[in-house]
């Protein structure tokens, strides 16, 4: 069993076999997540898909509070090392690493990736996380791409965490195709409603998912689910 807790935007705390991973922490600047107490978040790992501020803003705080390990591409972990973050594991596209909770593969994403001060954030990515408790795909910010078919061919994906807000990333129509490509009927939506350009019609996207035979789960901020 894998437990997910949603903290808004693209931020999920995932618990696998007693270890916790938080993805793309952007909480304190998000007014929709004002009820989340960031200093109470406990995690062992912080995974960052790319360098944009709405994915890295709370990395330092959460890593420092928990003495957690930051996992991201080489450029992003180097940037944080220069800011004093000590526990890091740098990766790049196509590479895999076994951790104490399971195995991570850093996969392609189609997006941009400048860090908040304009530093090159490397190329954006997503993560496939394998464990004895299940396998899931966290896409990060991305467009639809045929590279996702390789994920479906290589992994037995139980669920996918996909952006659905459109404008800056895939919208629901392409996210449903992405789910087909990676071979899952279960989608956890992310990267929607935080800013005006990515506000969605929840009824409409749910209806579109149902027509495609997919389960689209839109968690409330602070809500947890076990999968």
UniProtKB/TrEMBL annotation:
Entry annotated with the keyword Hydrolase: yes
Domain Metallo-beta-lactamase: 8-191
Family: Belongs to the UPF0173 family.
Top-rank taxon, per record: Bacteria
GO molecular function annotations of the record: hydrolase activity
Name of the protein in question: UPF0173 metal-dependent hydrolase Cycma_4401
NCBIfam families noted in UniProt: PRK00685.1 (NF001911)
Keywords: Hydrolase
SUPFAM superfamilies: Metallo-hydrolase/oxidoreductase
């Amino acid at each position: 069993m894998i437990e997910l807790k949603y903290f808004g935007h693209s931020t999920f705390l995932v618990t696998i076999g007693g270890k916790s991973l938080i993805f793309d922490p952007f909480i304190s600047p998000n007014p929709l997540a004002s009820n989340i107490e960031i200093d109470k978040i406990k995690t062992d790992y912080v995974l960052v898909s790319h360098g944009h501020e709405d994915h890295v803003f709370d990395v330092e705080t959460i890593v420092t509070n928990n003495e957690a390990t930051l996992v991201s591409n080489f450029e992003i972990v180097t940037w944080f090392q220069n800011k004093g973050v000590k526990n890091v594991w740098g990766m790049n596209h196509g590479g895999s690493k076994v951790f104490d909770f399971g195995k991570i593969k850093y996969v392609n994403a189609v997006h941009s990736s400048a860090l908040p001060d304009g530093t090159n954030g490397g190329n954006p990515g997503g993560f496939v996380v394998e464990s004895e408790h299940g396998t899931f795909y966290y896409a990060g910010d991305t467009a639809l791409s045929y590279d996702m078919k390789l994920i479906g061919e290589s992994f037995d994906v139980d669920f996918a965490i996909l952006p659905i807000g459109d404008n800056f990333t895939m919208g629901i129509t392409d996210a449903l195709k992405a789910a087909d490509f990676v071979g899952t009927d279960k989608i956890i939506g992310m990267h929607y409603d935080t800013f005006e350009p990515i506000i969605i019609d929840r009824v409409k996207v749910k209806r579109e998912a149902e027509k495609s035979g997919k389960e689209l789960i839109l968690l409330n901020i602070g809500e947890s689910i076990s999968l």
